[in-house]
Structure formats: C-alpha cells, structure tokens
Amino acid sequence: MNIVLLSPYFPPNYYHFAVALRQNSVNVLGLGDASYGDLRFELRSALTEYYAELDLYYYSLRELPRGLEDAGRRAVAAFNLRERFFHIEFFHLGDAHWVALEVNMRPPGGLTMDMFNYANDIDLYREWANIVAFGRSQIHFTRPYHCAYVGRRRMRTYRLSHAEVLHRYGDLIPEHGPMSEVLAPALGHYAYLFRSPDLDRLRQVIADVLAV
Question: What total of structural domains would you count in the chain?
C-alpha cells in the first residue's frame, strides 16, 4: 500500500503519522516545501520517498475549472452553509472529477482573501460586515484578473533582487510584504501578489520571480 502525506512535518508532531504507517509496512510518500535534510530523523526514516517543492505559488483564476463550481455548490448545500466564511479544498482527479479534501468553516489563510479582492476589484471584508449588520450583500463581480501568490524563501538566492522585481513588475503588484514567522514555513518569508488578465503573462512573471 502507498500513502501520500502532504507536508508530513507540519505540525511538528504529525511525523508520528508517517512513523505509524511505516510500522504497518505502508510505503509513505512525502510531498512538502522543506528540504529533505531539514526533516527530523524519525520522519526521514519513515518515508519511502520524499519530493521537495521549494517554490511557492498559487492562483485565483478568472474562470473556474470544469466541474469545480458544481462540486463546491454541492458541498455548500450538504453543510447548509450560510452567513459565514468557509473554504473547501479539492483534489482534481482529471476531467471534471473533483474530490473534497477538507471543508473549513473559516476564511482561507494567508493572503487568499486579498487575492479574491484584487482578482475581482471587490472588498469581501466589507461585504461580510454588510451581511452581519444588515443581512444582505450587494456584491457584483466580473473576475477581470487572474491573481497569483508567490512566496520567496530567505535562504534562497534568486536571480532577481527584490528591487528588480518591483522595478520590472511593479504595475502588476497590488500588494507585497514579509510573512509572519508562523506562516513562513508554509508560505515563504516574503510574499508578492501579482494580477493580470493574461494568465500566460502571469506564469512568465512567476517563473522570473522564482528563478535562481
């Protein structure tokens, strides 16, 4: 049997899951953004294979992939979600097939709320307050931009300096700044948000900013 564990080192005590699986003769495959050498000995010993992806980025897309909105609406109906923030994480298994990973009854973490705002020229913080105070929202959006989160790590030397990133792509950056040390292991030490109506343009920017 093969089991894939995402970020098997976080939270720190979760390495016990990998150890217990290995003791039951399960092949444990790890995927994370920490280097293999930084993993504690017990975790390294429990992993059959480990793949480290040090570059950190993700998107808020103008158009939802096929099948995702339907899967999300069915999850919302099943949990009868109303008047609260939530976010749902899915695995894409190909074509229009999506499988829910988890449902969280809270806003998404990091700068995701800001990504939604910048992608749509809206203010979700205010719209939530309108629902709480007045029981209604008059939000309208057209999804004019793709928005990308890019996190860079303090220990890596990148081809473009921070000043060069701002000089070259400043017109695409609605927000940037350091991340808290609590979030840095998962999201990087410094964050940039980029937005553009052109997804290919955004992908090229990400490649340039993360190039070493």
Answer: 2
Q: Output the pLDDT for position 52.
A: 87
Quick one: 114 and 31 in the same domain?
no
27 shares its domain with 60: no
pLDDT at 43 over 80: yes
- Structure tokens given for 178: 């350091």
pTM: 0.85
Give residue-wise pLDDT tens across range 131-184: 889 988 888 889 999 999 999 999 899 999 999 999 999 999 999 999 998 888
Do 37 and 135 have their domain in common? no
Domain limits for position 163: 55-64+110-212
DSSP letter for each residue of 121-184: T--HHHHHHHHHHHS----------EEEEEEE-TTS--SS-HHHHHHHHGGG-SEEEEPPTTTH
- For residue 1, pLDDT over 80 is answered with yes
72 within a domain of the structure (yes/no):
no
Vertex 89 angle, CA 124 and 137, to 5°: 20
- 94 within some domain: no
Q: Report the distance separating Cα 211 and Cα 164, nearest Å.
A: 13
Whether 162 and 127 map to the same domain: the answer is: yes
